[in-house]
């Protein structure tokens, strides 16, 4: 399956890297957390607006490699309108596919996030893909300290 979809996946990653979605400062964010992946040099600031239990808005700023930028761009698109619990389920699923713990890909549940499943073939890039999600996890649990993939 990867061979057939690899071109499409790369296109989506290139597209999100060239034109990142939700790339802006959010003045009225309820959560703001910085994430850093020292191994690659990826840095991002994630902004989340929680409306009760729902993520009503998400945005980011920062600089990173194509994988990290595409990952956070896709993430901000996908989590908007989702509840915290739904987002945590997605994070679990995403973590499993990027670290190869899950053999079967649940494409329906993953949606566009499936484009990043290919990083599991490149262990050095896994942290680039998961940085956004670890930072989001800190934001949702109101841990305001900076997130590092090497802590
Ligand atoms: Zn990176």
What would you note in describing this structure?
By secondary structure, the protein is of the alpha+beta class. The chain has a single domain, classed as Sufe protein. Chain: A (Alpha-Beta Complex). It contains 5 helices and 4 strands, in the order H-E-E-E-H-H-H-H-E. The chain has helices spanning 2-18, 66-79, 84-99, 107-110, 123-140; strands at 31-37, 42-51, 54-63, 147-148. The protein has a 4-stranded mixed β-sheet with strand order 3-2-1-4, with helices on one face. Strand 2 and strand 3 form a beta hairpin. The model has no long low-confidence stretch (mean pLDDT 89). Bound molecules: zinc ion. The site of zinc ion has 8 residues, from helix 2.
The count of DSSP E runs of length 2 or more, i.e. the number of strands, is 4
Shape category = globular
CATH architecture: Alpha-Beta Complex
* Rg, Å, rounded: 14 Å
Biggest sheet character: 4 strands, mixed
From N to C, what is the helix and strand string?
Answer: HEEEHHHHE
How many domains in all? 1
CATH class: Alpha Beta
Class derived from helix and strand content: alpha+beta
The order of strands across the largest sheet is 3-2-1-4
Bound molecules: zinc ion
Task: Provide the CATH topology.
Answer: Sufe protein. Chain: A
Low-confidence stretches: none
**In percent terms, what proportion of residues is strand?**
15-25%
Share of helix, binned: 40-55%
Distance between the termini: 35 Å
**What's the total helix number?**
5
- The overall average pLDDT, rounded, is 89
């Amino acid at each position: 399956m990867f061979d057939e979809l690899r071109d499409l996946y790369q296109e989506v990653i290139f597209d999100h890297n060239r034109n990142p979605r939700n790339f802006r400062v959010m003045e009225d964010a309820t959560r703001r957390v910085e994430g850093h992946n020292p191994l690659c040099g990826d840095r991002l600031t994630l902004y989340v607006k929680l409306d009760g239990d729902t993520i009503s808005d998400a945005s980011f700023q920062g600089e990173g490699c194509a994988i990290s930028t595409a990952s956070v761009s896709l993430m901000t698109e996908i989590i908007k309108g989702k509840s915290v619990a739904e987002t945590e389920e997605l994070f679990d699923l995403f973590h499993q596919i990027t670290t190869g713990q899950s053999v079967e890909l649940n494409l329906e549940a993953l949606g566009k996030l499936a484009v990043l499943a290919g990083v599991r073939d490149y262990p050095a890039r896994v942290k680039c893909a998961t940085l956004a999600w670890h930072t989001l996890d800190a934001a949702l649990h109101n841990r305001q300290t900076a997130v590092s993939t090497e802590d």
